[in-house]
């Protein structure tokens, strides 16, 4: 990150006045985009209730329903969103990058990395390119395990069954041994191979 800071502008004071960094004609400004996610609960920190004199009201101890908000921030525009003028000039671009998720019945419904990827792909990137058309984006995410994911066809040993199973995700081919011999992980009909079949092919 320190290596990129020399390409980033500095924002000073309460008004966040921009101090432009000196760049050559071949260099581009880098813009830091910070990810922010938080959850609001219906009974969040609700410690006091109104009751009739002499009566004791029992209420639920859990936080009840919740709303999760996922958004992106920049020093230049705070929330990543278009201005009123830009909304009119670019009607095909979504106005703001934030997304919210309401908890469903029995608190079902979770924010997963698939949702985050869709938010970045369909909202964040297009808004960023509208705001900073000649800049390079630098994303900063927290260390939540929810932000870690493999590609759908990543070769992960614990996801391979002993026997062949068409219900298992198809994994990409790989290479074995020092000679880099190619190993196909799927049959000709695209059905994924099991560990047993791979071992048979290697005469193990």
Q: Helix count?
A: 3
Q: SSE order, as H and E?
A: EEEEEHEHEEEH
Oligomerization state: single chain
**Rounded mean pLDDT score:** 80
| Strands, total number | 9
Largest sheet: 5 strands, mixed
Distance between the termini: 47 Å
Estimated share of beta-strand residues: 15-25%
Summarize the structure in words:
This protein has 204 residues and is an alpha+beta fold. It folds into two domains: 5-44 and 61-147, no CATH class; 157-201, no CATH class. The protein has three helices and nine strands; from the N terminus they run βββββαβαβββα. The radius of gyration is 25 Å and the shape is flat.
Per-chain topology:
Layout (H helix, E strand, L loop, with lengths): L9 E3 L4 E3 L10 E12 L24 E9 L3 E2 L4 H6 L9 E4 L10 H19 L4 E5 L33 E3 L4 E3 L11 H7 L3
Parallel strand pairs: 3-7
Antiparallel strand pairs: 1-2, 3-4, 4-5, 4-6, 8-9
